[in-house]
Amino acid sequence: MKNLDDAELEGKNVVLRTDLNLPVEDGEPQKTVRFDRYLETIRELSERGARTMIIAHQGRPARNDFLSLERHSEILSESMDQKVNFVQSFFGSQLGDAVACMDNGDICMLENIRFLSEELQNASPEKHAEDYFIQNAVDYFDLYVDDAFSAAHRSHGSMVGFTELLDSYAGPIMQRELENCRKVRDEFDEGLLVLGGEKPSDVIGMLEEMIEGVDEVLLGGVPGELALKIKGNELGEKGEWIEKHGFDTKASELEEMMDEYGEKITVPEDLRTDSGNHEVGEVPEDEMTWDIGEKTEEKYAEKIKKAEAVVMKGPMGAFDQGHEKGSKKIVEELAENKAYTVIGGGHTSSLVQRFDHELDDFAHVSIAGGAFVRFMSGEDLAAVEALRNR
Q1: Which of 94, 121, 129 has its CA nearest to residue 110?
Q2: pLDDT below 50 — which residues of the chain?
Q3: CATH number of the domain encompassing residue 243
Q4: Residue 113 belongs to what domain range?
Q5: Which of 60, 250, 276, 281 is 20 to 30 A from 74 (CA-CA)?
């Protein structure tokens, strides 16, 4: 797979696929670790004389965060102290004129690529190469750079279609994510997995791929609560909530893992509700559990302190709803630990900023969610395979 070290960029018209899908508050996109990392890539292309057209997406159809990227282009301009021109049309003279007007080092940003229905089809690179947008755009560009590791599990148009038609390269984020995640997945030994978040299906995939090589797995979040439910513990209103939202559909697989590797899998001893801390089995039936409890966070923190390597995926509780004590304790211990630590998956990377830690406190902080989980679960990623096959 080629990377930017192999590319001659000066004077070249470059399609850069990023993932600037940002959290939105009151209609305003918020800067994150992800945003800061893409600034580095965009600056590199500009400084090396590329004429860069950024392709990105924001949200999904029918969701509140499904927005135009015009504000993103303004935020980029402010952050780079350089004008980033917004291109509203995918077709016709506006796209061609925008490319024709660029000088070396200039940057444009195309409208939200998911406004195109063909973009969201999961299809092969060969099929997407026939997309109307790809066919219309390809004549304007010399090469394609895919830096959107966090969307690499999706075989969408702009993720795979250009690789069939343009000289294609992995961007620095893509390259760094693959190197670090591959090292952890394939070489991880004698360490801890700390697995939380909301989706037990993510946890099961990572367990199946990695449990043989780890010392212990510490469960939190919904996967930890599902494990407690499997063991016959009452969880107040959370038990019904798990069933209502379909998070118990993987209960049989998790139970099999617990039966086979029970000595390696540690579950919470206590949980937090709105009324306070409760031992497992003593949660009031009319209350919802939100986070791991005090005993559990202290126990997990002590295990992390002694570990030589730790991978964390997913928060320990509903931190985005104000229940963050368990996650905060675990992330603080990871930051202080001198072991090899990797954080990734969905909301997990945002915990670093939320709790005022530096990225350098950890060996690697992945900005990917689904792609991180799938890669760590041993699955091939569509966009990575498309790049590899060029």
Answers
A1: 94
A2: none
A3: 3.40.50.1260
A4: 4-170
A5: 60
Q: Are residues 187 and 104 in the same domain?
A: no
Q: 251-261 vs 221-230: helix axis angle to the nearest 10?
A: 80
Rounded Cα gap, residues 136 and 227, in angstroms: 51
C-alpha of 387 from chain center:
19
pLDDT tens digits for 153-209? Answer: 999 999 999 999 999 999 999 999 999 999 888 877 778 999 999 889 988 989 998
Total residues belonging to the chain = 390
Name the pTM for this structure.
0.89
Any alpha helices (H) in the chain, and if so which ranges? 33-47, 70-80, 92-100, 125-128, 132-137, 157-160, 172-187, 200-210, 221-230, 238-244, 251-261, 294-306, 325-336, 348-354, 370-376, 382-388
User: Residue 298 is which amino acid?
Assistant: E
Structure tokens at 369: 């969610």
Q: Are strands 143-146 and 167-170 parallel, antiparallel or unpaired?
A: parallel
Residue 13: which of 112, 135, 109, 104 has the closest Cα? 104
With a CB cutoff of 8 Å and minimum separation 6, the contacts of 284 are 236, 273, 275, 278
- Whether residue 225 is found in the same domain as residue 348: yes
Q: With respect to residue 383, please indicate whether it lies within any of the assigned structural domains.
A: no
